[in-house]
Design brief:
alpha/beta, Glycerate kinase, domain 2, 2 domains, five-stranded parallel beta sheet
């Protein structure tokens, strides 16, 4: 039996690679072949899904302090993860973030460094941001932007939010108060006018332009392409071919809810599995009790299996104990 293991991260608990490895260990005695492909949707973990970092640079963090950011370049293709340079975690989470001052400047510094290193294609994964600066910080770090003419900059997005909606949708999770959200909305409205006047691009109606506090829109203003992050990662990992050649597909994430089927890893894997006629199982930390699970997907919830928050305290150990549970599916 050939089993493909392709989960997303279990946010705050274990990486996609760690979860995939633990599931593989639980299945080692039951399969003729186990193939591991950790996935991401354009947010945190996308860099690892492309093979991990092979470089690190000191850049400006979201609140101005220097941070060491990992990134990758190979065969003139660079992969940058915004969370490494301008992530909310680097700002100390929502409780310590300054939503008005947080900047994407460090991400722009990484993009510039990738260009100077000889990259002809630059993939920017934009999830997990601290900033809602509409990408202005990044563009300032990239100046003069004319040097990116002829360079393929592709922005991997995990949401479809539009530019002017970014403050109201993402501001609260970045620590913004209602008054600050209104200020950020005004800021992005002014920026949209600036981008249209300076670069001739109206980003306000562009799907995904609000990703990462509008960074996606800022990059789009200077010619970047905005793409679905999962689709990009799946294509680079030849996921559909791997699914078609498998007898069982196991995916997963920290919490399964309706958003899991809106451009995220679990929903994307389920779609491919259904298209290829291969059964799929999702191992999740927990799931929304009101969620109607789509037909064709079996769900194994660690909280339901092991009780309370124990699964989140030591997810790796729980996954290693799943051998007996998987016996029903193999």
């Amino acid at each position: 039996m050939r089993i493909l293991i392709c989960p997303d991260k279990f946010r705050g608990t274990i990486s996609a690679a760690g979860a995939a490895g633990a599931i593989a260990e639980a299945l080692a005695a039951h399969a003729d072949e186990v193939v591991v492909k950790p996935l991401a949707d354009g947010g945190e973990g996308t860099l690892d899904a492309f093979g991990g970092s092979n470089r690190a640079s000191v850049v400006t963090g979201p609140l101005g302090d220097p941070v060491k950011a990992r990134w990758r370049i190979s065969d003139a293709i660079a992969v940058i993860e915004m969370a490494e340079a301008s992530g909310l975690t680097l700002a100390g989470g929502s409780a310590h973030n300054d939503p008005l001052a947080a900047t994407s400047y460090g991400t722009g510094e990484l993009i510039t460094e990738a260009r100077l290193a000889g990259a002809h294609r630059i993939i920017v994964a934009v999830g997990g941001s601290a900033s809602t600066d509409g990408g202005l910080g990044a563009l300032r770090a990239m100046e003069p932007v004319v040097r990116f003419a002829g360079i393929d900059v592709e922005v991997a997005c995990d949401v479809s939010t539009k530019f002017l909606d970014a403050p109201s949708v993402f501001g609260p999770q970045k620590g913004a108060s209602p008054a600050q959200i209104r200020m950020l909305e005004g800021r992005l409205s002014s920026l949209a006018d600036l981008y249209k006047a300076e670069y001739g691009r109206d980003v306000t109606q562009l799907p995904r332009s609000g990703a990462a506090g509008g960074l996606a829109g800022g990059l789009a203003a200077v010619g970047a392409r905005l793409t679905n992050g999962f689709d990009l990662v799946a294509e680079e990992n030849e996921l559909e071919e791997a699914v078609a050649n498998s007898d069982l597909v196991i995916t997963g994430e920290g919490r399964l809810d309706s958003e899991s089927f809106n451009g995220k890893v679990v929903g994307g894997v389920l779609s491919i599995s259904a298209r290829c006629g291969v059964p799929s199982v999702a191992v999740v930390g927990d799931q929304d009790p009101d969620l109607k699970v789509p037909a064709g997907l079996e769900v194994l919830s660690l909280v339901e299996i092991y009780g309370s928050d124990r699964a989140f305290e030591d997810t790796a150990r729980c996954l290693n104990e799943l051998e007996k549970v998987f016996g029903d599916y193999i």
